[in-house]
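Structure in, sequence out. Go:
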């Protein structure tokens, strides 16, 4: 869109956005320009007389030429109009006009504006006005407007509800038969909560459109067996899809009515009735034409299996951008392109719109993978009945997103969050394009059901305009764990852990009972528990002569033991045992587990295919033959892993002790997170924090430039406003200056070289401590000069000695993708060489500060390891909370480093500090809802 030169500002292209509406469809939001006159008139003609009356407070059948000019000519500052469009046509408009205190048209610095909406009747109830309000409010804030006013007729309940439900701080009055609403545009906790709840519902419904369609058209079906399109059609038909199914190919002969019993058409336009989902398998050069036909027919979503897009190079990336833009124009969302497909095993759907030749058995696990190869591996492992992990539950839904151009793991998480058919979510993520949003969604999902993730080391999908995180892979993984994500390393561990969580209750602690008929296998399990941080009890050896009754008795006793939270059963085959003995043992274990269904039970088996199969029983994830029987019943729904089951679930079996114990360890850590998540703590208030003074200081400093590292005095002043006292370090360019600095600070002192290659490197000899008088100070000064060179090279400083303690380091950084991150570790080799650093997202609560200190591997050094004096960890936690408050209150503080922080038995000393300021990165999580730019 272009704007005429008479307008005050260039067309603000950054205001354009795609949004997901309440019903799961999409719309395009963009500024209204002078080129939109015909669209505006056409839109207004389709609005009912009642809606026009509510907008103008009088009968207003048509717009005059003056009205059209006014509503299409904007300066994008004091007068702004936005439109929501579908298929290029307006479905709703909103505008604001800046006004003065007496209600007259005004310019800045006036900070109030009148706002008014008009939504086409056919699109009312889709949440269009709510989405437009979010966007027009963001535009107004950008242009210096802080408050909206709206006048609404009392009978216009829908529009009043749009304003009152938005969550802004507002004032309401009634005068001259009109309701006047005034509300501040600054986001509040409630407005953000409302926005995120709407986002969740809308994105979940957009995925539901793709996974629960009433009808499916496969476009690009070959006339002969073979090929991608024909394979997908066969898979949908053979799975017993309960909705309408259509085969589409322009090459079908004119008179052809069906293909293998499926109605056949030359174009999706020829299909009578609605089509909810289209699977696109045509050559890449024909895809856009197919998308156009689908959009014009009202198709709700697309699965594009066609390849030749971003994975093929720059030209493919541009084709992919055009594909997404074109589909969104018609309100459609896309899985793919280059997708493997989607599966929904629900009895009332039975959709296998994928390249998987067999339908997995219905179950409680949701699967997401970007890669088709990984998707195949996941389904294959869940299918397996023997020779590996025993399948103990099936799949609810499966999404393999291919190039992930539109629908992503975030969208699928939104769907799984309140999907009653999914108890456990397994995800293979090659990248996390929006870590801040993913972490927020993961935390909410993990509080309701387990989320297990393998995170690849890939980059963002080709072509996506997302901010890249600068955080190391390990840091992102740590933040995911903080959010309750069960982070595993391999596909094998993903399936191992998912199967346990899908069918067994969460353990109440880390105490593990071990019993079995092999002493050596029991000891291996014991050692594995120790390695994983569990607390194993002494293994109970039942000997190789143990019968099924012996296993039943031992397992019942172990489950009844109040000192046990979980049980691992180990079993090896006896000579001459066969299927009957395997079945007897499986039944003995299941019946014993029923005695205490609140504790998880796992089996480690060696070469016992029969036992593994018996344990998985009839609800394995092995592929099932599809029956068209009328009496086919949906699979029994097992209890969710989030609660204690009423009846015991099937017992997962593992071929190696290490795999079983690793899965159990993840379940223990997740259960602990769930317990702690019920009381996350609070962000404490400190009366001595001078937030306004710090803001003024930061503003003044930033006025000098776009980004700068503060000097020592400014650093100490800013940190001091948040109660962080930094020991002064006085420069000592000469021996006399060093002596004068020591007299100022008071003996004993330390002499330090601060040259970059010597800073924080006491091991190199650039530090002299406990200098109690001037003679020792001058000798130390000379020694440093002899060792390392002139004072100009050394940059020596003098600092008052701090009490002895443990040297630590505290850092905070603003990452453009993940947000503010607080990090803690021990100074020196532990953090620099071994990477022993813990991380938390800001703002940090008091509970999180405590866990941050205790989560590093070297934490015992803070708590009296080997008889040493414990240090003042409460003072350390308070320091972490104060730094967290600083970067949370002032996003312009983009980096803080406190090193070293010497934590003594009583109190601590911050001996070094640096602060960097810069204009903060844009917080996309505080703005209006939008789909990722592509």
């Amino acid at each position: 869109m272009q704007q005429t030169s008479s307008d005050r500002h260039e067309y603000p292209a950054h205001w354009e956005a795609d949004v997901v509406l309440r019903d799961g469809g999409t719309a395009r939001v963009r500024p209204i320009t002078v080129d939109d006159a015909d669209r505006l008139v056409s839109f207004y003609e389709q609005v009912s007389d009642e809606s026009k009356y509510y907008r103008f407070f009088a009968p207003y059948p048509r717009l005059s030429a003056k009205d059209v000019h006014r509503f299409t000519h904007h300066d994008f500052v004091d007068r702004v109009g936005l439109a929501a469009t579908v298929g290029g046509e307006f479905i709703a408009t909103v505008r604001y006009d800046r006004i003065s205190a007496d209600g007259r048209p005004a310019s800045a610095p006036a900070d109030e504006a009148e706002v008014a909406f008009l939504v086409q009747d056919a699109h009312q109830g889709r949440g269009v006005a709510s989405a437009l309000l979010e966007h027009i409010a963001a535009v107004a804030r950008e242009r210096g407007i802080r408050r909206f006013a709206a006048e609404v007729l009392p009978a216009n309940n829908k529009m009043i509800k749009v304003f009152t439900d938005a969550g802004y701080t507002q004032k309401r009055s009634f005068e001259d038969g009109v309701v006047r609403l005034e509300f501040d545009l600054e986001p509040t906790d409630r407005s953000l909560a409302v926005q995120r709840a709407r986002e969740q519902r809308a994105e979940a419904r957009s995925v539901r459109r793709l996974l629960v369609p009433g009808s499916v058209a496969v476009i690009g079906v070959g006339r002969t067996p073979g090929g991608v399109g024909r394979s997908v059609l066969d898979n949908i038909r053979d799975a017993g899809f309960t909705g309408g199914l259509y085969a589409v190919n322009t090459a079908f002969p004119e008179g052809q009515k069906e293909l293998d019993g499926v109605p056949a058409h030359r174009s999706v336009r020829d299909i009578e009735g609605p089509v909810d989902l289209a699977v696109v398998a045509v050559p890449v050069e024909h895809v856009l034409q197919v998308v156009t036909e689908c959009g014009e027919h009202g198709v709700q979503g697309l699965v594009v299996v066609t390849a030749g897009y971003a994975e093929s190079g720059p030209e493919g990336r541009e084709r992919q951008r055009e594909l997404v833009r074109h589909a969104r124009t018609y309100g459609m969302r896309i899985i793919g392109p280059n997708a493997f497909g989607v599966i929904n095993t629900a009895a009332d759907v039975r959709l296998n719109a994928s390249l998987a030749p067999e339908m997995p058995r219905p179950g409680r696990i949701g699967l997401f993978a970007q890669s088709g190869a990984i998707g195949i591996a996941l389904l294959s492992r869940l299918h397996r009945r023997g020779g590996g992990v025993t399948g103990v539950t099936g799949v609810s839904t499966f999404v393999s997103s291919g190039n992930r151009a539109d629908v992503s793991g975030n969208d699928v998480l939104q769907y799984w969050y309140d999907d009653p058919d999914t108890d456990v979510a397994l995800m293979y993520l090659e990248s996390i394009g929006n870590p801040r949003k993913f972490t927020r969604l993961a935390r909410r999902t993990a509080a309701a059901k387990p989320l297990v993730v393998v995170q690849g080391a890939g980059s963002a999908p080709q072509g996506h305009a997302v901010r890249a995180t600068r955080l190391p892979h390990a840091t992102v993984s740590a933040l995911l764990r903080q959010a309750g994500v069960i982070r595993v390393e391999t596909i094998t561990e993903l399936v191992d852990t998912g199967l346990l969580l899908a069918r067994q209750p969460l353990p109440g602690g880390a105490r593990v009972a071990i019993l079995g008929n092999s002493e050596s296998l029991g000891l291996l399990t014991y050692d594995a528990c120790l390695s994983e941080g569990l607390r194993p009890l002494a293994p109970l050896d039942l000997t190789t002569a143990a019968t099924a009754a012996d296993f039943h008795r031992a397992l019942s006793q172990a489950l009844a033991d109040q000192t046990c939270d979980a049980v691992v059963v180990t079993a090896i085959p006896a000579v001459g045992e066969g299927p009957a003995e395997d079945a007897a043992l499986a039944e003995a274990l299941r019946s014993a587990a029923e005695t205490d269904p609140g504790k998880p039970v796992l089996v480690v088996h060696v070469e016992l295919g029969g036992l593994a199969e018996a344990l998985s029983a009839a609800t394995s994830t092995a592929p099932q033959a599809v029956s068209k029987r009328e009496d086919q019943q949906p699979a029994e729904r097992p209890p969710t892993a989030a609660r204690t089951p009423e009846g015991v679930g099937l017992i997962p079996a593992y071929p190696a002790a290490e795999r079983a114990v690793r899965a159990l360890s993840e379940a223990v850590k997740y259960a602990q997170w769930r317990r702690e998540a019920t009381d996350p703590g609070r962000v404490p208030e400190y009366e001595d924090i001078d937030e306004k003074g710090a803001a003024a200081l930061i503003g003044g400093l930033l006025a000098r430039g776009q980004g700068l590292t503060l000097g020592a005095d400014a650093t100490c002043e800013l940190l001091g406003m948040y109660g962080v006292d930094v020991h002064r370090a006085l420069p000592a360019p000469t021996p006399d200056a060093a002596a004068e600095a020591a007299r100022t600070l008071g003996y004993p002192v330390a002499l330090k070289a601060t040259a970059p290659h010597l800073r924080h490197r006491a091991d190199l000899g650039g530090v002299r401590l406990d200098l109690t008088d001037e003679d020792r100070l001058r000798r130390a000064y000379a020694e440093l000069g002899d060792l390392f060179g002139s004072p100009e090279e050394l940059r020596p400083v003098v600092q008052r000695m701090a009490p002895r303690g443990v040297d630590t380091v505290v850092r905070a950084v603003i990452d453009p993708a993940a947000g503010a991150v607080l990090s803690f570790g021990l100074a020196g080799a532990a953090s620099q060489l071994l990477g022993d650093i813990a991380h938390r997202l800001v703002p940090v609560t008091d509970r999180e500060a405590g866990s941050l200190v205790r989560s590093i591997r070297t934490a015992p050094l803070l708590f009296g390891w080997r008889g040493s004096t414990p240090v003042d960890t409460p003072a350390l936690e308070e320091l972490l909370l104060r730094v967290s408050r600083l970067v949370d209150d002032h996003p312009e503080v983009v980096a803080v480093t406190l090193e070293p922080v010497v934590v003594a038995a009583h109190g601590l000393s911050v001996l070094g500090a640096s602060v960097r300021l810069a204009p903060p990165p844009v917080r996309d999580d505080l703005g209006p809802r939008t789909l990722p730019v592509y």
